[in-house]
Write a structure and sequence with these properties.
By secondary structure, the chain is an alpha+beta fold. It has helices spanning 3-8, 15-35, 44-53, 62-79, 85-99, 117-123, 128-141, 179-189, 206-223, 227-240, 245-257, 261-274, 278-294; strands at residues 145-149, 157-161, 164-169, 175-176, 203-204. It folds into 2 domains: 39-204, Roll (C8orf32 fold), CATH 3.10.620; 243-294, no CATH class. The protein has a 5-stranded antiparallel β-sheet with strand order 4-3-2-1-5.
């Protein structure tokens, strides 16, 4: 980890600092390995906990992993071998919401901790995507079919069994939402003129879900002009999605704001490696040229 990152953490050259740096090094190693892992093979819950640990390095993920196992066992016990959709849905809601109290509140949108899975587990409250990760992870550990959806402004999940499927809102106690409810939700969040589209119900990959989780933290840091912390979040995102050109451009923008022009140029050059569209390549090349000219 670079000296700038050490400064970001407010650490001095002490044994305490060395311990923290070792923890971060181990986390980064795991996240980079996840970045090389095929999307469907990513352990969604564990990776979200690793990302959370970057914000609270002294917290160990083992107790939280045991909590996931407890949720899995309790849901399995409640389902009692039933494989129909209604039984699976009921088991998830009865355990995750009613027994353990996981739900969303409006204050979740005002705090960084609502996007930190460790804190969400501690408080039983969080953003829709964080709560969705719990539902999806537990369902998948039981071999059930669950995925996140590309629905705008609110993270929703789809549960499937046999030939049936059901869309659930983890933020609203895991309740089922039908077509009319989805339309109302969309209009309340996005605008009255917006209508449902088939693309909103496309499944999203575990990697995309994790990026969506971290994006909430990045947005909040940027909104409060905490550029260094926002950059650290983007670095985490890049570790799990190293070929995402947009993330490299986001990193460059944050580096530029902090006056790290050479670093910003390097990040933009990395972005160019993964740009697939001519317009993006042209815009990125233009940004590199502008930054180089600003050095003279």
């Amino acid at each position: 980890m670079c000296e700038k990152s050490s400064h970001m953490l407010g650490l001095k050259n002490t044994p305490h600092k060395n311990t923290i740096m070792k923890i971060f090094s181990n986390i980064a190693k795991e996240l980079r390995e996840i970045g090389r892992t095929p999307g469907d093979s990513i352990d969604l819950g564990r990776t979200a906990l690793l990302l959370a640990q970057t914000a609270q390095p002294h917290s160990k993920i083992a107790p939280y992993l045991r909590h996931f196992e407890k949720l899995k066992k309790d849901v399995a016990d409640y389902a009692n071998g039933a494989c129909d959709l209604s039984s699976q849905h009921e088991a998830l809601v009865q355990v995750i919401y009613k027994r353990f109290g996981y739900t969303g509140t409006l204050r979740s949108f005002d705090t960084l901790e609502a996007a930190n899975l460790m804190r969400v587990i501690d408080c039983r409250n969080g953003l829709p995507v964080a709560l969705g990760i719990i539902y999806i992870s537990v369902a998948q550990k039981l071999g059930w079919s669950a995925c996140g959806l590309n629905f705008p402004a609110r993270f929703l999940i789809r549960l499937k069994a046999n030939s049936e499927q059901r869309i659930l809102d983890p933020f609203e106690s895991g309740k089922k939402i039908g077509p009319k409810g989805l339309r109302r939700l969309l209009k309340s969040l996005v605008g009255e003129m917006v209508e449902l589209k088939p693309s909103y119900f496309s499944p999203v990959s575990p990697r995309s879900i994790l990026l969506r989780l971290e994006e909430n933290r990045r947005i909040r840091f940027v909104a409060s002009q905490r550029w260094e912390e926002a950059e650290k979040v983007v670095e985490n995102m890049i570790m799990i999605a190293p070929t995402n050109a947009n993330l490299w451009r986001a990193k460059a923008s944050l580096q530029k704001r902090q006056g790290y022009i050479y670093a910003a140029i390097e990040s933009l050059e990395e972005s160019l490696k993964y740009c697939s569209e001519d317009n993006s390549r042209y815009a990125t090349s233009a940004m590199i040229q502008d930054l180089r000219q600003s050095l003279f």
